[in-house]
Design a protein that fits this description.
By secondary structure, the protein is of the alpha+beta class. The chain has 21 helices and six strands. The chain is 52% helix and 7% strand.
Amino acid sequence: MIDNTAISIVGEFVANRHYDDLSDLAITRARQVTLDFIGTMLGGYQTRLGALAADYAAQMQPGDDAAIVGDGRRSTLEGAAWANATMGKYLGMDDSHRTAGHVASQLAPVALALGERLRLTGEQYILALAVGYDVMDMVHSAVDSWQRERGMDHKSQAGTFGSAATAAKAMGLPADKIKNALALAMDMACGTEQYVWDAGSCDTKDLLAGYGARNGIYAAKLADFGFRGPPGALDGEYGYFHAFGPGYDEAFLDALDGEALARTGFKPHAGCRHVHSCVDATQELLKSGRPNLDAITSIEVNTYLEAITPEFRVNYEPQVIGQAGFSLPVTVSVILTRGNWFREDIETFDEPEQKRLRQLVKVGLDEEIQAGHPLTNGCEVRITTDDGTLYKGRVEYAKGEPENMLADAEFEEKFRYLVGDMLPPDQIAHILDRCAQLEHLADVGELVHLTVPQHEMALK
């Protein structure tokens, strides 16, 4: 490949990154991402779609390369990564990066599957995860606004590049093969966000994460076997940035600074990340006193533009939970009546009191918050009662952003909530301990094996 192509520059970056290059914060985030996503996978495994994904991978893609998380059955590398990504995305509680979107659902399943298969150490696993974050952040931040206007989904678009980088690094491929893996991944980029309009009628929101994970491994395996991708895969006349973005600018590569993983955030709540600052602001409001719900005359929700457009984000009459999870009027009404924003709370969106309250909601743009977006993603909620009393809650950053990070106890609380009673206490304790010492693990496969209930392991 020509050395000055964008794909070559990115490939050299991935090839030349070493564990010692990573910041302490990036390593800390790798521990948190791993624990967080194991939790979301185990939570998702216990759902209809999670069980379906596990069954599909085990039955339709049989193999002995990697385990299906929570299940113990085995599949091909691609099959296990696809199933684990799909189940990990289902609950919508995976990580959220302000410029790269939802990243862990594409990369963590790849690193875990290959980590188990290749017996990677914790350091090797963390490095593979980190370079995937770097590549996905660079690609997605360059095309985000252009793709959003056209309804493309980042998980199987930029996510395929990030997954290919993670897979190639985990496999220990040399620079020339890493470049080809990235170049081959370009023609596997796919996916739209039509699922937000057809929520409740399709499963693609979550399958797209699986596509990204699967295709990244596939691209790396093709490159390792000797297949080549186009040198102009990113910056060529028909390359990714022209075909799927606004065109190529050398400045895009400046985002490849090695710190993307350190900047990731986490979701303490379910539903779309863009409603989370509304959740936090409403919960903040309730701390100063709970208004009499019968006395409320108006509810104002003011936040940044991306959280209030398109119109499905201001949906007063959602028909299914998939639509309700994107709606700001639903969000504030659920928090006022339930206090929390987990899936079981969102499922109550059509109860009479919530239907009444959301009709009082007026959604608007907060110019100050918008001026700081995407570095800020705050919200202000104002509630007025019939006696003129004003209740106000405001946050500048959603809970889980780097500036408003979860405490260790909150990560553990979320993990235990997601796992429920699926695993016995000793296995949960072991997973918590291993993730806390992730960089010291001799074999990352131990983490995957700990996700399977002990009685299931005995049967398989």
